[in-house]
Amino acid sequence: MTNDLMVPEDLTYKVDYVPAKIDFLYFDEMKSNVLGYTDRFKNIVVSPETVDDAKKVKANLNKLKKQVDERRKEIHRGYEAPYKDFEVKVKEITSIIDAAIVPIDGAVKELDAIEQSKRESLLITYITDLAPNYGLNIDDYEIKPSWSNKSMWTKSNKPNAQLMREIGQMGLDINTHRERIASDKSAVEAYATANGLDASGWVAQIDQGATFAQLRGRIDDELMRRKKEADAAKKRAEAQAAIDAMHQQQTAQGTVDIDTGELTAPVAPQPAPQVEQQTIQQATAQPTDSHVYRQAFWVEGTKEQLWWLANQMNANGIKYQGIKKGEY
Length: 328
What we know:
The protein is mostly helical. Among the domains are: 18-129, no CATH class; 176-243, no CATH class; 267-315, no CATH class. Helix content is 57%, strand content 4%. It has 7 helices and 3 strands; from the N terminus they run H-H-H-H-H-H-E-E-E-H. A 3-stranded antiparallel sheet has the order 1-2-3. The termini are far apart.
C-alpha cells in the first residue's frame, strides 16, 4: 500500500523550455536621438503667441511615447502566449490530482475527528479521577482545547508528562485562588464593618475579581466621599440657619418670621440668668394712671440678658415688637 501511494519517477513530466531573449537593438543610439529631440523643448516658453506651437510639440511627444510603448506591449503579448498555453496544460494535470486528494483528505479528517473525540473522553476520565486528590471535581477545571491534541498523548493514549504537569498545576492554582478569595472576603468584611459600612456589597465584589487591596482603596474613597458630603451638608445647614436668623424675631411666644408674622418655634419662658453688673434692674410695674405710652428704643446685651429682659416685660404686661434690621 505504501509503495502504491508513492509517486513513480515516470510521472515526473518534462518541459522543453528555452528562456526567451529580448534584445533592444541600437538602444543607445535610440536613447541619444530621443534625448536630442526632447532637449529642444526643455526651455520652451509658453505664451499667448506660442501656445499653439506648444500644443503641437506636446502632441508630437505623446505620439512618440505611444509608439515606443505599443511596441513593448506587442513584444509582451508574444512573449506571454506560450506560457499561457503551458499554464492551461499544467492546471489540467493538477485538477486530476486534486480529484484523487479530496476523498482521501475527507477520510483522514474524519478519522482525526474520531481520534480527537476519543482523547477528549479519556481526558475527562483522567481529570475526574485526579480531581479528588486536590479536593476538587471535574466541574472546577477549565479544560483547555490543547489538552486533547495528539501531541499531548502517548501512542498508547495516555497523557504525557507535560499534560499531567499542566492538569496538576491547575488543581494547585484553583485551591490557591479559593484560599485568596476566602481571605480577601474576611478582610473586606472586617474593614468595611469597622468603618460603619454595609459589608455585603463590598464582599460581593471579590467574586467579581476584585482583591482586598483594591477594595480597601475604594472603601477609603467612599469614606472620604461621605465625610465630604457630611461636611458640606453641615455648612449648608449653618448657612441656612444664618439666613433664617436674618428673617426671624425672638419673642416671649417663640420665634416669629419677620416677613410673614408666622410663629415658627414657640418656647417657654426661661428663668433670668445670674448676670454680674446687671444694667437693667427688675421692677414691678406700679401704674399711676391708665394712659398707655409707646416708646421706641434699642437694647444691647448678651443673648441670655435679652431673654431675661423679654421675660420681665412679659411678666409685667408690657407689649413690645422687634425693629427690623436697618431701621435702627
